[in-house]
Amino acid sequence: MGFESINYTPATVCVLTAAGSFGFDNVAFFFFFSHLIPHSFLKQLEVLVKAVAWKEMDGDSLCGEDDNFDWDSEDEREIENCRLSASSSLTLPAAEATANTAVASSSVGSSGSKLIDHFVGMGFPQKMVAEAILENGEENTDLILETLLKCSARSSAGSSGSKLIDHFIGMGFDAEMVAKAIQENGEGNTDTILETLLTYSAIKKSPEEQPHVDSDHWSSEYDGDLLDDFSDIDSFENEEIAKSEPDEGNTLLFLARMGYTVEEASIAVERCGPDATIAELTDFICAAQMAKAADASFPEEKPTLKHFDDDYPKHKKRSYYEYDLWKRKQRMKLEKRMLHGDDELLRLPNPMIGFGVPTEPAVVTHRTLPEAAIERPYFYYENVALAPKGVWSTISRFLYDVEPEFVDSKYFCAAARKRGYVHNLPVQNRFPLLPLPPRTIHEALPLTKKWWPSWDARTQLNCLQTCVGSAKLTDRIRKAIEDYEGDPPLSIQKFVLDECRKWNLVWVGRNKVAPLEPDEVEMLLGFPRNHTRGGGISRTDRYKSLGNSFQVDTVAYHLSVLKDLFPGGINLLSLFSGIGGAEVALHRLGIRLKNVVSVEISEVNRNIIRCWWEQTNQTGNLIDIVDVQQLNADRLEQLMNSFGGFDLVVGGSPCNNLTGSNRHHRSGLEGKESSLFFDFCRILDLVKCIMTRN
DNA sequence: TTTATAATGACTTGGAAG
DNA sequence: CTTCCAAGTCATTATAAA
Fold first, then answer.
1. EC annotation (predicted)?
2. Domain enclosing residue A49, as ranges
3. Of the candidates A410, A392, A429, A276, the residue with the CA atom closest to the CA atom of residue A353
4. Which of A525, A550, A581 is the last residue in one of the domains?
5. pLDDT of A11-62, one tens digit each?
6. How far is the CA of A455 from the C1' of C1 (A)?
7. How many domains does chain A divide into?
8. Which of A134, A173, A339, A415 has CA 20 to 30 A from A309's CA?
9. A610 CA, B13 C1': separation in Å?
10. Model pLDDT for residues A370-390, shown as the tens digit of each residue
11. Would residue A681 show up in a list of annotated catalytic residues for this protein?
12. A25: exposed, middle or buried (C-beta count within 10 Å: 0-12, 13-18, 19+)?
């Protein structure tokens, strides 16, 4: 059976991947891509497949004809479930709306910004788009397209194979889409490939995602307000403006989103030069518009000025500078609203106790899961709570719209650890690991009590991270305070406390602070002593592995409900295992580990798990896998057939690009490491598919 | 080569103060 | 309500030392 009339969902995407792994030539590209292409593209692919679902496009063209993937009625039911869940716009904004409205209008909009959006969305460089529009006019989209295709063909001469793929991906098309287009048209004919891609993009792109800005913005009150706000400001501070720029290469698009026409924007860019700031450009455009207005004999005061002025507090006498400043801030807010929309972001709970912690009265004893999340297996996903805006909404959306549970481990141990957990486990009748671990520094590290100064009011530690304070810093602190008989002056106290909080330093002697020892970190995180010690691991690497790990007591509390559900033990798929936080948690809960498939890229971490496994006299079976990206449907099915599927899929994907500690590459889920989250989704979906079929 | 060390902010949130 | 400020964050990179 083929893929006809299937509702495409994220689950389906993984099925496509699965089909590829069965070795059919015509789908080999899919397999190839799903592992080598940045997985951020999968997110976009999700949008595409949903759009395709609504479009009721013929499925055969998307996945190849000859697959022997056996779809029985149960599969179709499951797929249907997935679709239903995907269409319930529980949390999310743009992507969902995109899919829903894609059918309504697949034609190209006539407004300037829409037009730019449309073509830029297809992956054409925006400069090229603008030139093409200027050349052909906004009306004739076919001509624009032709121009763009010519330009693209020129720059893609001589490409073949993966180069060809790279080329189209570089243009912004989804990897899977590219693979399919190449597969359909052959490598030789780049033009038809591009056309195919454009067709898909047209389906994918939706007017909802694009700003509602009329090309005739003079007639729009809202746009008028905006323009007026700009025109009214004489002096822009460029750095402020620059901050609001979404992307440095998207100047034209940005201007278009502000409501200017392509023509206006292009002329401004042309006149002001490519390096001009948005402020300079808007100034230029405003000047041009005022001239235009004067030409058209509009002598009256622009009506839209009042909008902001009405809000300006009149009872206070302020200088012009203050007024200007206030005005700019109003504008910044407006821009922010425009850029990010009014999408409601997930709020972190305060206190951060999720659905309940052992020491506080339970707040949630029962919850209703989305339908698609109920089926087997249980899954448990973890990552940092304080991720960039929108990240958790995305994570939730990809994990069947399950609401994340945000918990700070300071309710379980003596150190804070703010994390979000998305899981489909029951939340009733949880129980903690015993004995309850110490929850204050003094209880956890009794030897520090003797040296703890009264002016250091800390009772708990901050988040245990991968780096520790340097010796030089502790020396600076010692020198700063050893000159004083009693308490040092407040300024010194503040300096010391700030550094202690930043580096989690504890008092180990008179005027002596020190970072935590690795075994102290192990203890705080709930691991057995020396869990990460020996076996050729360096001290630095111990800190790193521990800093990246679960807090065992916290995770165990959530997983405790499995004990009654699986009295005979469980089969566990552990992705991004690290030093085995999930395994340790389950073991300490007394849940037998029957078969554990552990996927972990780091060799030292795999050794740590293997060591622990052997030391704890496990009766089950531990299988190592190195790379989640190499874990395909074939391997999974082979594994699952041998022991009958997984009861639990656990994983905390890398947070490198999400955490605030990262000064260099905090790029969100699209980041190099953090995009591995999409592999968690992929593999979870594969497991679901295989288990539903068997 | 491996390991340890030091230098490197941005971004978000909550709460106090006005 | 706005404005301001304090607090906190599963880190990366270059360089020195072993």
1. 2.1.1.37
2. 10-87+94-204
3. A410
4. A525
5. 333 333 333 332 222 222 233 233 333 333 443 444 333 333 322 222 232 2
6. 36
7. 4
8. A339
9. 40
10. 999 999 999 999 999 999 999
11. no
12. exposed
